[in-house]
Amino acid sequence: MTDINAPEATATGEAGFGDYVALLKPRVMSLVVFTAAVGLLLAPGALHPIEALAAIIFIALGAGASGALNMWWDADIDAVMRRTMRRPVPSGRVEAGEALGLGMALSGIAVVMLWLTTNAVAAGLLAFTIFFYAVIYSMWLKRATPQNIVIGGAAGAFPPVVGWAAVTGGLALEPLLMFGLIFMWTPPHFWALALFLKDDYHTARVPMLTVTHGRAATRRHILIYTALLVPVAVGLGFTSVGGAIYLAAAVVLNAAFLLGAIAIARRTEAQAEADRYIVEKRVFRLSLWYLFAHFVALLVQAAANPWLPTPWIIGG
Q1: d(CA 87, CA 24)
Q2: pTM over 0.85
Q3: Residue 7 within any structural domain of the chain
Q4: Which of 171, 189, 219 is the last residue of a domain?
Q5: Contacts of 261 (CB under 8 A, 6+ apart)
Q6: How many helices (DSSP H) and strands (DSSP E) are in the chain?
Q7: Domain finish residue from 138, 154, 171
Q8: For residue 315, what are the domain limits?
Q9: Is residue 229 helix, strand or coil?
Q10: pLDDT digits over 28-60, tens only?
Q11: Concatenated DSSP letters for 179-207?
């Protein structure tokens, strides 16, 4: 989930506890924790409640570590973007070295403790997730290619897979489709944001699609990726974690998101400028609820499945 509100600067300019919390990107972490918890809860088998809670905590620490490492590396970019310039590192309240040290320490703690609490597969996936976000996305893709958010979206898609693996010690179709849901959702989500924050990315020289290919091309790409997202999201309903409730929610959510993407694709920049990007902002807000609602629907479906058998599911 994208944080569009930077933290307020402190009056003294000195770091407080809240600044170190902000380094962990708590809004992003909340989505990571939620999707990981859904993956864990839906996985066949069970962990002891204490083990399950510990697993979620260590996955959250891993997400926080990724955020701190990202803020350390991206301090120069954050300093020139309006929505990020008041973050702890570019504002000077937290030293870059502190962010790096915190990120590295939390990474080690999260991976080792998840291994001890659950299994090596889950720990390995968490380690790869941190590496992917901090190194492959932040250090390489973000500044190198307009496909940065497409490929880099994998980092945010791994948490439900990690949660599933924490219980089962392996992978299956269901967590891979959860991964696909988040992965395919990420580009239209961020590109909708980029349409009305276009100057930020241009100023920071980040090769976002709006900068390299223009906003007309970005609008078309939003529609293409949303269309590709729909079968992944709906297809999850035909697996062991899906059913009638999830499918109903998915159909409504994806119809709304697809209609929003079509509306964006049909607009010109002149129209968008005239109404201050009202449609783009509306679709962006919808995208925030879209992902959350899908995972809530999975939980509701899981609670109802004992009373609502779904014989059409894959493997059912």
Answers
A1: 11
A2: yes
A3: no
A4: 171
A5: 188, 222, 223, 226, 227, 283
A6: 17, 0
A7: 171
A8: 172-316
A9: helix
A10: 889 999 999 999 999 998 899 999 999 999 999
A11: HHHHHHHHHHHHHHHHHHSHHHHHHHT--
